Amino acid sequence: MVAIKQVSKSFGASRTEALQACTLDVPAHEILCVIGPSGCGKTTLLRIVDGLIRADRGQVFVNQTEVTAPRPDVAMVFQHFGLLPWKTVYDNVAYGLRVQGRADADLADAVSRYIDLIGLRGFEKNYPYQLSGGMQQRVGLARALAVNPEVLLMDEPFGSLDAQTRELMQEELLRVWRSQPKTMLFVTHSIDEAVILGDRVALMTRRPGRVKEILEVGIARPRDPETVRRSTRYLELREHIWHQLKVEVVGGNGQ
Amino acid sequence: MSAVAEQGRAAGRRETVAGLPPAGIRFLSVMVGLVAWEAYGRALHSVIFTYPSAVVRAGYELIVSGELQFYLKSSVIVLSLGLVLAIVLGIPLGILMGRRAVIEHAVDPYVNALYATPLVAVIPVIVVWLGFQTKAKVVLVFLFCIFPILINTYQGVKNTDSRLVEVARSFCSKEWRLWRDLILPSSAPFILAGIRLAIGRGLIGMVVAEFYTTITGLGYMIVQYANTFRMDRLFVPVVVLMIMGVVLTGVLRHLERRIAPWLYVAREE
Q1: Which DSSP state fits A82?
Q2: Which domains does chain A show, CATH number per domain?
Q3: pLDDT on residue A253
Q4: Which of A37, A133, A171, B230 has the CA that lies 20 to 30 A from B79?
Q5: What is the three-class DSSP state of A32?
Q6: Does the beta-carbon distance from A76 to B172 stay under 8 Å?
Q7: B182, closest residue in chain A (CA to CA)
């Protein structure tokens, strides 16, 4: 579904290399978690897949067509939520559909379906600033799902939430994914999150980011996070990933 | 200790004197000022001084004779025409400056130069070119008003959260949709603050224009009664101007809070 082929990207006058020949494939309905030390270009990679920025070298294909600009079959959920503060929950969820030119009468069904799915019923008329961080990200998720994309790009969506809310949102995402099994590229810096959610986990090196290793999680779905956390496979993966990440993080700090 | 004082302390403010709420202190302060003025004015018995009760009486006379309404009307027409013109031209130009680098750099020197110029200096020029009629006064008010609106709109557009612009692009928003969904609402508080500043400047422009063109308006009333030493009547248009300024900027400030409630949440909590 998503094919990232040898993507490289540099920034600024000094041409600091953020990504170096990244190659990843995400089959349909798979959740691929990307984990790496901060500043390794994970977010850059997502922005390239979304078509927000162009790669210097290499190509990205979604559904066999090359990504050259943002497209309606790919939607992104942002770490900073990215809600419009002057729009209500309802209008924020409807935003993507309105931008695509759908008429109000035409989109009401879809919007209210996703408001129900994400558990926002009763908050339609609230403004984002009246909601907690977790609720705001539910709006962000509903907005992305409402355009019915084939691919969801998750840019550390729960990164700015507190630990408890974060775990609740992970369960919530697993529940939503069961009814809407979207192809998902999920960037995170939490090992726990990557193992709980992912079918596979891609480990990245420190800058310039390369794919270091791809791990099969191999834990059956549907998953219950609490049970998963007690399994030996979880502990094994956690230890392995942490071991690999530590090398990158410590190395990145120049020893 | 009173509950009010405790609340004040909880809000991190200094304790209020004698447990009075801020509004009470304000009211008392104004009363003390007025009474002192009245007492001093009555004791002085001077031709070139006046006191509040005399101003109130003069105001009553001017309203009964219809003189105040007549001059007020012409002033209000000048102010509103100039202000509306400044809003209608200032906002789109400000948005264009904020979104298009060519226009930004082309217009910037003019805006900077004219905003820095004390506009009172160009009044004689405008009078020579446009005469003593409403047209000249409207143009002057417009010149006084447009810069805060233009500059604030431009700042507001520049201040639009670039992360939200990226969200809009991610959802494949067209440029015109971006203006409507993002640029305008996010700069609305800036634009309203600009209009509020413009009203203050517009009032100055209006009065000064009326001083120079001396045919009608509240400014003309002031000049006329100053020349004849009718100090009580002179203060009537001054008080009216004060009320106009306070009410108009108050309404705008209220609108600012209404239109962008999310900006005030942190301050209220």
Answers
A1: -
A2: 2-73+151-252 (3.40.50.300), 86-148 (no CATH)
A3: 55
A4: B230
A5: strand
A6: no
A7: A84
